Amino acid sequence: MQLTPQLKVALTGANGQLGYQLVKKLVDKVTLLALDRAALDIANNAQVEQTLLAFAPDVIINAAAYTAVDKAEQEQELAKAINETGPQNLAKVAAKLDAVLIHVSTDYVFDGQSDKPYVETDATNPQSIYGKTKLNAEQAVVKYCAKHIILRTAWVFAEHGNNFVKTMLRLAQSRPELAVVADQVGGPTYAGDIADAIISIVCQLSAENEPRFGVYHYSGAPYVSWHQFACSIFQQAADQQLVAHAPRVNAITTSQYPTPAKRPAFSKLNCSKIEQAFGVMPSNWQAALNNLTLYK
């Protein structure tokens, strides 16, 4: 596929961290239907059919998700509607249209008990409502739409939206010292890099009998703990003179910071499959922190 005005792309979750980046990168290159939650409730099958059958996209990118991991433990029905029912509806319509569906998933489908970076074929075992709904979505996409790319990612951040980087920068303005969990490790992933990865995949897919459909992992390198990630953010903030002094960051354990939802302690994703299939390299999260004024 080529990025031309003739290529029709429907994007859900257009106002989220990833959706915002995709709109920015695609709006002048393809015929784009960018849909936020107000424009399309993906859990409403009739709405999904009416909107997408009328537009008839070649590619559907599902960047919509319920991502309030802790709140999902209470708001189970809402999480299920957005994270399970929605992707199933999109998959069924994509199949009717013979469109490619690119669906974004998460490291939370794993239990975090591995001792080596997860590959795509490793057993899933989600430990939270959020993780369970995201895994159910993956299974629905595989079941209903043969032409699919499922992209599992982790620790997403960007200039637009709410995320760990913004939270740390906000706390740095008022606190000389804070505590951050040091026994959860993973790969921070810049949403702009995820958008570039998706666009690269779209450009390399051919319409018929594409052998590269399937599940892929995409996250950042190098792997770090949340504590190490916070230290990097504060060092950059100090170097860029956004704070007078980098706050002192105390390392704590997950048990010292209990949350309603259980997080995977080990979220390292092996990204060699996407590199071999599409030439997509891991997200350079350190470079994404080079201009922190954009995150304020």
Structural class: alpha/beta
CATH homologous superfamily placement of the domain at 8-154 and 190-219 and 269-285: NAD(P)-binding Rossmann-like Domain
| Low-confidence regions | none
Count, helices = 8
The largest pleated sheet is described as: 6 strands, parallel
Question: Can you give the helix content as a percent range?
Answer: 25-40%
Q: Measure the end-to-end span.
A: 37 Å
Pathway: Carbohydrate biosynthesis; dTDP-L-rhamnose biosynthesis
Keywords: NADP, Oxidoreductase
Function: Catalyzes the reduction of dTDP-6-deoxy-L-lyxo-4-hexulose to yield dTDP-L-rhamnose.
Domain RmlD-like substrate binding: 8-291
Structure, explained:
Strand 1, helix 1 and strand 2 (31-35) form a beta-alpha-beta unit. The two termini are 37 Å apart. Helix content is 35%, strand content 19%. The protein has a domain at 8-154 and 190-219 and 269-285: Rossmann fold, CATH 3.40.50. The strands form five sheets. A six-stranded parallel β-sheet has the order 2-1-3-4-5-10, sandwiched between helices. It is α/β, with parallel strands linked by helices. It contains eight helices and 15 strands. The mean pLDDT is 96. InterPro entries: dTDP_dehydrorham_reduct (IPR005913), NAD(P)-bd_dom_sf (IPR036291), RmlD-like-bd (IPR029903). This is dTDP-4-dehydrorhamnose reductase. Pathway: Carbohydrate biosynthesis; dTDP-L-rhamnose biosynthesis. Belongs to the dTDP-4-dehydrorhamnose reductase family. Residues 8-291 form the RmlD-like substrate binding domain.
